[in-house]
Amino acid sequence: MQFRKHALALFIVCASYSHGSPVGAASFDCSKTDLAADEKTICENRALNDQDVKMATTFDILTQLMAMGSRDALKTEQSEWLKRRQTCEADVACLTKAYDERMVKLGEAFQSINRPL
After folding, report:
1. Is 85 in contact with 38 (CB distance < 8 Å)?
2. Which long-range contacts (CB under 8 A, 24 or more apart) does 82-86 make?
3. pLDDT, average across residues 74-81
4. Which residues contact 112 (CB under 8 A, 6 or more apart)?
5. Distance CA 66, CA 72 (A)
6. How far apart are CA 89 and CA 41, in angstroms?
7. What's the pTM value of the predicted model, to 2 decimals?
8. Angle formed at CA 103 by CA 101 and CA 109, multiple of 5 degrees
9. Cα dihedral: 93, 95, 96, 100 (round 10)
10. Contact call for residues 55 and 82 (beta carbons, < 8 A)
11. What confidence tens digit (pLDDT) does each residue in 3-57 have?
12. What is the pLDDT of residue 112?
């Protein structure tokens, strides 16, 4: 089990570097002029931008690995989380906490995937 955690972490780190420019966050376009306060803050803060890349990459990987019913539930949870993230507005501490909590939930989702032994 420990190996799986390390393998996923390594994959996420490698995949996050393949997203190109550090100026753009993975889950939305930072060049848009009509960004919400949370999005603008994420684009302007490198640590939050990195968290967004990691979260979006993890989410994308999980949606590829999960069965259709679980995938739909994960997408619904993601939409609900994005709404909660928006309530942070420009509060960096709130956004950081939101990403930390989401990564825990995504990690739990990864652990729940049925795998052959």
Report:
1. yes
2. 85/38, 86/36, 86/37, 86/38
3. 96
4. 70
5. 9
6. 8
7. 0.77
8. 110
9. 140
10. no
11. 455 445 545 544 444 444 445 666 899 999 999 999 999 999 999 999 999 999 9
12. 84
Cβ(53)–Cβ(103) under 8 Å? no
Q: What is the full DSSP assignment across 44-92?
A: H-HHHHHHHHHHHHHHHHHHHHS-HHHHHHHHHHHHHHHHHHHTTTT-H
pLDDT at 71 over 80: yes
Range 72-78 average pLDDT:
94
Q: Are 71 and 78 in contact (CB under 8 A)?
A: no
Q: Is 95 left (phi over 0), alpha (psi -120 to 50) or beta?
A: alpha
Residues in Cβ contact with 91 at an 8 Å cutoff, skipping those fewer than 6 apart: 41
pLDDT band for position 68 (cuts 50, 70, 90): confident
29, with CB counted inside 10 A (0-12, 13-18, 19+), is: exposed
